Amino acid sequence: MLTLRDIKKTYYMGDTAIEALRGINIEFRKSEFVSILGPSGCGKTTMLNIVGGLDRYTAGDLTVNGVSTKKFRDGNWDAYRNQSIGFVFQNYNLIPHQTVLANVELAMTLSGVSRAERRRRALDVLERVGLGDQARKKPNQLSGGQMQRVAIARALVNNPEILLADEPTGSLDSENSMQIAEILAEIARDRLVILVTHNSELAQKYSTRIVRLLDGRITHDSNPYDASSEDTARKASAKEDRPKRKPSMSLGTALSLSLNNLMTKKARTLLTSFAGSIGIIGIALILALSSGMQDYIADVQKDTMSSYPLSIEQSTVDMTALLGAARSIRTHKADHPLDKVYSYDVMVDMMGSLLSESSTNDLRAFKEFIEDGGRGIGDYANDIKYGYPTQMNIYRTDTSGGVFRVHPSSLFADMASSSPMGTMRMMRSRSGSDVWEELLDNSELLEFQYDVVAGRIPQDFNEVVILVNKDNEITDFALYSLGLKDPDEVASMMRDVSVGKKISSEQVSFTYQELLDCTFKLVPSTDFYHKTGGQWIDKSNDDAYMAEVIKNAQDIKVVGILRPADGAAETFGPASVGYTSALTAYFVNAVKESQIVREQMDNPDVDVFTGRPFAGSAGSQPAALDPSSLPPDRQAYLASLSPEERAALLASNVPVSKSTYDENMLILGVADLDTPNRINIYPKDFEAKTQIKSIIDDYNKQMNDQGNPEGVIQYTDYLDMMLSSVTGVINAISYVLIAFMAISLVVSSIMIGIITYISVLERTKEIGILRSIGASKRDISRVFNAETLVVGFVAGAIGIGATLLLCIPANAIIARATRIPGVAALPPLSGVMLLAISMALTFIAGLIPSRIAAKKDPVVALRTE
Ligand code: ADP
Ligand code: MG
After folding, report:
1. What gap in Å lies between CA 29 and CA 32, rounded to an integer?
2. 852 or 227, which is more confident?
3. Rounded to the nearest whole angstrom, what is the distance from the C-alpha of residue 199 to the centroid of ligand 2?
4. Atom of ligand 1 nearest to the CA of 166
5. 390 CA distance to ligand 1 centroid (A)?
């Protein structure tokens, strides 16, 4: 069944060729016990390795069951070794970190036998060699004879046709040698056993055929065999193809081999993984911190965007440019000697920049642009608010204790402008003493920013809400302004303060219902005027008149109490009542529709307040005065004058109004809803703001291109002045740190590669064993890849675990230093990605060592000690 025809094998060592086999011709029976004898170095092992498919012949042919092996590929040889060959070596060649049972099972895992079947068959053969009770031991817990029997069991477990034993008794005493020889003789009853030995006595006693070898040639064969003469029929029927099914190691087997190996080197594995994890820890920590910071900033932004909108005023001073100008003044360089005192001229620059940076904006056109879609400006904004010059006057409904205006509050106007609140007013571009504030139109954002404590969010134009802080408080400032606390107290407090007396105040409280019961009255400015004798008289200081007006005025109802939601930053300022843009529209229209305004508009030449014509209008022309209505003596006097003198006199005598039409409209607060005097755009986030700015820039460019520089819009970005670089700095720092950490990751990967390479060197023998039982090159690289993957996984897991632990103290420290809770939080996705990166990096690092392992010549590997 097995035929060697003129097999030659030449080894090359540098330039010298060593002819290990010089033409071997021999044929073996299907079942016999052949002993090969010969002096050391005669080529016995070489011949056995060639028969077993571990080594390749240089010339000649080896036929198995009548099939030539000349065209065998690696896979065919692997399958041949796995299915047809069992190897037994002198030095046992067991895998030390695997149990006896696992060693025996290994060949079957390669050939894909089920787990239960493997166990059963392994225990079976172990029983056959008399080791049924030693299955759970590790090889180094056995004696030499026992180990050799394990090796025989392993060789037999796949039920091979051929068992090859290379000096299996070489390291055993005669007692054990006899036992092994007996087992082999027993096995040889139903298969071919080829035994290489030095012990000719043993050979004589047990084998059925003795072959002697000398210098690579057969010198004696005690029982030669020629199939062509003895068994032709058999040969004809034995037309088998070369072994096809490639045995392949499952990932599970590779993993379990690697895991077992790693477990024998726990300390090293842990240290390696720990070293590998440091880079991961670094990157994970940075990611945790920066993403936490970004989240926080994003939140603050979303929040503060409602306090710091992009603000476009009808007439504006570009603060950013002003600051820039101030900076350039500071960085100025003098070019005169220090011999006298020189003037440092800053006034021109200051005034120049003030002039050049201030401008008027055509907000009517811009509002129209926004409402026509504004190139999607609305998609980037949470809300766009329009302000009007019309004053909203709110009074307390109850006038029994006197007329009390709650908005605009005159109570603290002076105080506010002389305090830091005044600065705040400028920054927020709205009155710092305003208790009343227009709510965002965006109900989604409103719900994000506020929790409804009681009542509901306003739906109608005449509905408002009370805004409390996170602790359900309203400033006493607002309470006085709203008349909820007695404003007279303030006057006495101010008096006390001015004379240096200590003042104190007492905390008061209101039930939700008390606040919800509050009602106010909206009085348009135009209702202050009453027409008497053809003139409109301001009666806003006439309490009796005002009480009557207030009685008939539009009701304003408090319908809810809102508190800033958790996570939303509190807004500044005393604002405590929020109203809707519908109310703004309502009072702007109320003023416009009022009788006084209509009279003024119908009669643009006459001042409604005085009934006199405006200067320069048609009514102020001398022709309008009829000289015939004058007394006769005056008429005579006029007649005596020259025409020039007469005209001058007539003009000087006409009683014209000192005001103008436009001034009157301003006094009355007449505004057109289409023409705001302020537009506040509340961007969704920083990116959105950038988009909005670029839309405005495009708009400006278009205006310039159309030859309409008047239409150019100047905006002020207060938040940008304060926060612009924060995100950039965080990003920059993160990138730099991640770059550093990436280097440490690369270093640790290289280290893992080196350690894998050491592992390859250490496990050379194991590689040889695996190859001898049919493992392919791919299987070998798989074992080492599995090992690096395991190390990478452990490193990643340690890294993530350590990061999660480190986040706890990190958060405590940050919370103490900045009062921002829970900044460091590793995003789960980043954690998973880092784990994958760790595994990928160590896998890549292990690729070269595992390729080296796969390429190892099994014969050389087996010879390694
Ligand atoms: P035996 O097993 O009979 O002692 P071997 O088959 O191991 O002899 O070796 C036969 C000859 O081939 C020896 O001279 C040995 O030095 C040589 N040889 C075996 N393997 C190699 C090898 N891998 N490279 C070079 N020479 C080798
Ligand atoms: Mg040998």
Report:
1. 6
2. 852
3. 13
4. 2
5. 108
Confidence band, pLDDT 50/70/90 cuts, at residue 630: low
863 CA closest ligand 1 atom index: 23
Other CB atoms within 10 A of residue 799 CB: 28
Residue 126: its pLDDT value, please?
Answer: 93
Pocket test for ligand 1, best of 8, 15, 16, 18 (most atoms within 8 A of CB): 18
- At 742-792, the pLDDT tens digits run 888 888 888 888 988 888 888 888 888 888 888 888 888 888 888 889 989
- pLDDT over 50 at 55, yes or no: yes
Distance CA 759, CA 188 (A): 38
Specify the pairing of strand 59-64 against strand 2-13: antiparallel
Mutate to test the pocket of ligand 1, among 11, 50, 57 (most ligand atoms within 8 A of CB): 11
Q: Mean pLDDT highest for which of 337-341, 658-662, 686-690?
A: 337-341
Going by CA atoms, what residue is nearest to atom 23 of ligand 1? 860
The protein residue whose alpha carbon is closest to atom 17 in ligand 1 is 20
* Secondary structure class of 111 (helix, strand, coil): coil
CA 111 to chain CA centroid, nearest Å: 45
Q: Model confidence over 81-113: pLDDT tens digits? A: 888 999 998 888 898 888 999 899 887 877 777
Q: Indicate the pLDDT class of residue 323, thresholds 50, 70 and 90.
A: low
pLDDT at 206: 93
Closest C-alpha residue for ligand 1 atom 14: 41
pLDDT at 429: 35
Separation CA 122–CA 423 (nearest Å): 88
Ligand at minimal distance from the CA of 9 is 1
**Separation CA 32–CA 375 (nearest Å):** 93
CA–CA distance, 697 with 483 (Å, rounded to integer): 46
Pick from 35, 36, 45 the residue to mutate for probing ligand 1's pocket: most ligand atoms within 8 Å of its CB.
Answer: 45
What CA–CA distances, in Å, run from 404 to 328, 466, 540, 822?
Answer: 50, 19, 11, 47
Lining ligand 1 with CB less than 6 A are 11, 13, 18, 20, 38, 40-46, 860
Query: Residue of the nearest CA to atom 13 in ligand 1?
Result: 41
Is the pTM higher than 0.85? no
Which long-range contacts does 423-432 make (Cβ < 8 Å, 24+ apart)? 424/572, 424/573, 427/308, 427/718, 428/307, 428/308, 428/572, 428/573, 428/718, 429/311, 429/313, 429/678, 429/680, 429/716, 429/718, 430/387, 432/573, 432/574
Structure tokens at 661: 């039409």
